[in-house]
Design brief:
The chain is built from 29 helices and 9 strands. By secondary structure, it is α+β, with helices and mostly antiparallel strands. Helix 15 (367-404) packs antiparallel against helix 16 (416-444), helix 16 (416-444) packs across helix 25 (614-639) and helix 17 packs antiparallel against helix 20. The protein starts with a helix and ends in a 9-residue tail after the last helix.
């Protein structure tokens, strides 16, 4: 019995050290002291001696690094080199592009909530607010979506001119080049407001301020390119498009077949070094009206004219005038019958000088990194703004319609079946606005969010689709008959567009969020992979050894944290705020720890196969995503000084998000290839069975009531939905 007590005491000491994530030297000290106390406190039995032997073995390898390297690290290092597929430069660039941010805290199992709460509240400047309230309001009043989509198939000439004259196409361009110099939040807010009136107009404004020549020139262009093009883009004298997608390479942009060969040719009457480019691009927004074409292609230098030893440079970006000899703008597309300009562009053996490469000759072959980082910013702003616009419009109009439309002498919003659909609109509308603000705010903090941008793009376009479906259900016949007063139909038809572009959502969920997130957010995996790729074995083993044993300690910590948080129902977790919402931080900490443990076990057992087990990785992606989305709701609530009216919305979102996390984890454990491990993980994560329930009927009623009356929270959630004077 004494032996068992001694063993339990030592396990508790080890668990405490692991839960607190003490540094190894501190953990060794604490455990050593515990053994000394046991030595003089109890009649020592087998539990003490077993603990002493384990402590001695760990000490041996900890204090004698050469022994550790020779017996363990070198062998594992060579094993990793054999089993890891070689990492191409393209894969390495994609993994390293952009930044990790708050999602890394959530992935690693011990989020520091004070870090989240200390982020500056994203707010518009006085100038930006004025632009939203005046120029953007005026633009919205000029838009007639029925006329644009069903008659003209284009914006009216006066709208095009207004967009150019008022600087809508140059919102991200600095003031010194004639642009607005607006923040990401302002860009997002303007697009959101326009999209509540006309999706076609919103896309027209969105694209030049998102992935395109303006963004690329700002970050990578030569000074000469910036001085020439940025003022013209800001004034609307140039209309840009960016040609990336080809008939055989959609979401897999790295597979584009378009190529350029370095050669000498004639430009402006003189022989010059340049590139002969051939391309075939489709689905290119603004291509039919573009005056300059941004182009992505693969660059080759078979004759070594660039003076380097390599032939294959990889993806490269160029900026070519649309009237340059050989550039062809082809047939126009009509995406879901929407009226924004979209079409094809082709070229065969088009000679361009090296000066047309974005960034000049120095940036030959750097296009993949340029695109990955620009896509990260675009995904964080533009498409989430479109999803939020759907939410705002649906919240405001569905609430009003449900009040004035009566059945059986009762407003339809009073029927529980309708109420159920409206609750989804209300709860998700709050979530989309919170996510939009925090994600755009991250860009304004200087972050290039790679994983967060994928989360925002996928979930906010999917939430937009769900919200619109519920809104259509409530409106019923009012929504399905096309006409000038139908404010939902065009938005309903356009939902698949956002879901498809900038990486199809199936790809984003199944591969990008967790596939990239697991490697980028994990504190050790990417560095271990890079160490295994080094040609110098001694240097590689040295780095790998340091990372490996910290990784083991991290795994032990995740195990004890998950077990402790599960057994105590997260009551031992820190509460960064007082009041009711404090318990939600505790539960998110618990699920963060579960994700960290589950991810480590999955990556350790499945290795590279986890990437191919897309349904498994997608479920872990859902866990990370809902942790992030719940975080945005809590941050939004705190930033607005915890209004009482918001509390039902916060409760709903926390219960909704935690339930989604739980279902994703249960599905993961049930489908894990090793059933024993899957069951073991489930028992550690949920020792008492399922912990979270969907939001209840009473709570959902509290969400719906503000939708049908004039109140502060209704106005705040739909603040940037265009209402107009009519």
């Amino acid at each position: 019995m004494i032996g068992l007590i001694e063993l339990v005491i030592m396990l508790l000491v080890v668990g405490f050290c692991a839960y607190q994530r003490l540094a190894m030297k501190n953990a060794m000290l604490v455990n050593g002291v515990a053994l000394v106390v046991l030595l003089f406190s109890l009649d020592n039995s087998w539990g003490f001696f077993l603990s002493l032997i384990i402590y001695g073995i760990v000490s041996l390898f900890y204090y004698l690094p050469d022994l550790r390297v020779d017996w363990i690290s070198r062998k594992l290092y060579r094993f990793m080199q054999k089993v890891l597929p070689p990492m191409t430069e393209t894969e390495k660039t994609a993994l390293e592009a952009g930044d990790v941010w708050w999602e890394a805290e959530l992935f690693r199992g011990k989020p520091n909530w004070q870090t989240l709460l200390n982020y500056k509240k994203p707010e518009l400047t006085e100038e930006e607010q004025s632009f939203v309230d005046n120029e953007t309001e005026e633009l919205c009043s000029m838009l007639d979506d029925w006329d644009i989509v069903h008659k003209r198939k284009d914006l009216p000439p006066e709208v095009w001119q207004f967009i150019k004259d008022k600087g809508f196409l140059g919102m991200i361009i600095p003031k010194k080049y004639g642009g607005k110099g607006f923040s990401a939040l302002a860009h997002s807010t303007v697009v959101t407001k326009i999209a509540t009136r006309s999706g076609s107009a919103a896309v027209t404004v969105m694209v030049p301020n998102s992935l395109g020549p303006g963004e690329l020139l700002l970050h990578y262009g030569t000074q000469e390119q910036k001085d020439h093009y940025l003022p013209r883009l800001a004034e609307g004298k140039e209309i840009p498009c960016f040609a990336l997608t080809s008939p055989v390479a959609g979401s897999d942009a790295g597979a584009i077949p378009d190529k350029g060969i370095v050669c000498k040719g004639e430009f402006n009457g003189e022989e010059t070094l340049g590139i002969k480019v051939t391309w075939n691009k489709r689905y290119i927004t603004l291509a039919p009206v573009a005056t300059i074409v941004g182009l992505a292609f693969k660059l080759y230098d078979p004759d070594g004219l660039l003076g380097n030893d390599k032939e294959d440079y990889g993806i490269t970006c160029a900026l070519i005038p649309a009237d340059h000899p050989g550039v062809e703008i082809g047939r126009r597309h009509l995406p879901m019958n929407q009226a924004f300009m979209n079409g094809t562009t082709t070229g065969k053996d088009v000679f361009i000088p090296m000066s047309m490469l974005i960034g000049g000759e120095d940036y030959a072959g750097q296009g993949w990194r340029m695109l990955m980082e620009s896509l990260a910013a675009g995904r964080s702003i533009s498409l989430p703004a479109m999803g939020t616009a759907v939410a705002k419009l649906s919240y405001r109009m569905t609430g009003a319609y449900a009040l004035v439309r009566e059945q059986f002498k009762l407003p339809i919003g009073r029927f529980e079946g309708v109420e159920e659909a409206m609750a989804q609109i209300a709860g998700l509308a709050y979530r989309t606005e919170a996510s939009r603000v925090m994600t755009a705010g991250a860009v304004d903090l200087g972050v290039k969010p790679s994983v967060v941008s994928a989360i925002a793009k996928y979930h906010m376009t999917e939430m937009g689709r769900d919200i619109m479906n519920h809104s259509m259900d409530v409106h019923a016949g009012r929504a399905i008959i096309m006409g000038e007063r139908n404010y939902l139909a065009n938005g309903y038809m356009s939902q698949p567009i956002g879901i498809t572009v900038e990486g199809a959502n199936i790809l984003t969920r199944n591969l990008m969020i967790f596939g990239q997130g697991a490697i980028r957010c994990h504190p050790y995996v990417l560095r271990e992979m890079l160490a295994a790729q080094l040609d110098d074995e001694e240097e590689g083993v040295k780095r790998f050894d340091s990372l490996l044993f910290r990784h083991i300690g991290y795994g032990v910590s995740n195990f004890f944290r998950t077990l402790g948080l599960g057994v105590t129902a997260a009551k031992i977790a820190e509460r960064p705020v007082a009041g009711e919402t404090g318990r939600y931080y505790q539960q998110l900490t618990r699920m963060s720890s579960v994700l960290a443990l589950t991810s480590d076990v999955a990556m350790g057992m499945l290795g590279g196969d986890l990437k191919r087990k897309e349904r498994l990785s997608a479920r872990l992606a859902d866990v990370l995503s809902h942790l992030y989305l719940c975080s945005t709701v809590l941050k939004y609530y705190e930033d607005h000084e915890r209004p009482l009216a918001d509390l039902p919305y916060v409760r709903w979102n926390m219960e909704y998000g935690l339930h989604k996390i739980q279902e994703a984890l249960y599905d993961f454990y049930e489908n894990f290839p090793n059933k024993v491990v899957g069951k073991g993980l489930r028992m550690i994560a949920f020792p008492y069975g399922k912990s979270y329930s969907r939001p209840g009927d009473k709570l959902e009623r509290e969400l719906v009531l503000p939708m049908m009356k004039d109140c502060e929270i209704r106005d705040r959630i739909t603040q940037y939905a265009y209402v107009g004077k009519g």
